[in-house]
C-alpha cells in the first residue's frame, strides 16, 4: 500500500531523496492511476458566478435550468444516437434556458457564459493533492464529458499544465458517461486493468456509473449530497480531495 508519509512528502524532497522508496510503494499498491471527472478539480461555481454577474437576481435560476438541460441533452442525444459534443450541448441548453426564463441573451453575454466553461477555477485543494499523488508515483488522467478544448482550456487557466498524463474526453467515443464505452477510454489510454484505476467522481450518478463499470470509485462529494438511488454505491465518499488521499493510502 502507498504509505501516508509518501503522500505528504514535499515535491522537491520526493523527487530526490525518496524516489526509490516511492517507486517501491507504487509497485506494492493495488492502485496505479487515478482518473478524474473535471469537477473534483475545477469549481463549477465559476459559471454560476458569471450568470449572476450578467443577470443579477436571476443567476441561480439560469444556471440551475441550464445545467439540468446540459446533461439531459447530452444523455438524450447519446440514447437517440444523435451525438453532438459537449460544447454544442452547452450552447443549445443555454439557448433553451434563456428562452424559458424570458432572459435577453445578447451575443456578448452568450459568449461570456460559454467561455466560462474554458476558464474554471481550480478548487484550493486541487494542486496540493495532485502533487502528492504524482509524487507517490500514481498516474493521473482526466476522464470527462467536457470536450478536449474545454478541458485543455481549464487546465491552462488553472495552471495545471503538465500535471495529467492523459486528458480524455468522452467525445473520443462519441458518447457520454455513464455509457460504459466512455469509461473504457480510461483503461485503453492507461493500459491498465480497471481494478487498478481509481475513478474520482464529482456527481453521484457518475460515481454509480464508474462503479458499475468496475472502477474502484471515490465520490468527491463537495456538495454534501445523498447518494443516488441507482442500486450501486461508490467504494468510499469524502468531502474533498484530502479524503481521496486517505482512500488511496
What's a quick, concise take on this entry?
With 249 residues, this protein is of the alpha/beta class. The chain is 50% helix and 10% strand.
Fraction in beta strands:
5-15%
Radius of gyration: 19 Å
Order of helices and strands: HHHEHHHHHEHEHEHEEH
Structure classification: alpha/beta
Unreliable spans: 1-28
Spatial separation of the terminal alpha carbons: 6 Å
The name CATH uses for the topology of the largest domain is Rossmann fold
Mean pLDDT: 90
Question: What does this 3D model show about the protein?
Answer:
The chain is α/β, with parallel strands linked by helices. The chain has 2 domains: 4-43 and 123-248, Rossmann fold (3-Layer(aba) Sandwich); 45-118, DNA polymerase, domain 1 (Orthogonal Bundle). The protein is 50% helix and 10% strand. It contains 12 helices and 6 strands. Helix 4 packs across helix 5 and helix 5 packs across helix 6. It is globular and about 55 Å long. Residues 1-28 have low confidence and may be disordered.
Short descriptors:
single chain, 249 residues, alpha/beta, Rossmann fold, DNA polymerase, domain 1, 2 domains, 12 helices, disordered N terminus
SSE layout and pairing:
Blueprint: H1 4-7, H2 11-16, H3 19-28, E1 33-36, H4 45-54, H5 59-79, H6 86-100, H7 107-115, H8 126-135, E2 139-144, H9 148-158, E3 166-169, H10 180-190, E4 197-201, H11 204-213, E5 217-220, E6 236-238, H12 241-248
Parallel strand pairs: 1-2, 1-4, 2-3, 4-5, 5-6
Helix pairs in contact: 4-5, 5-6
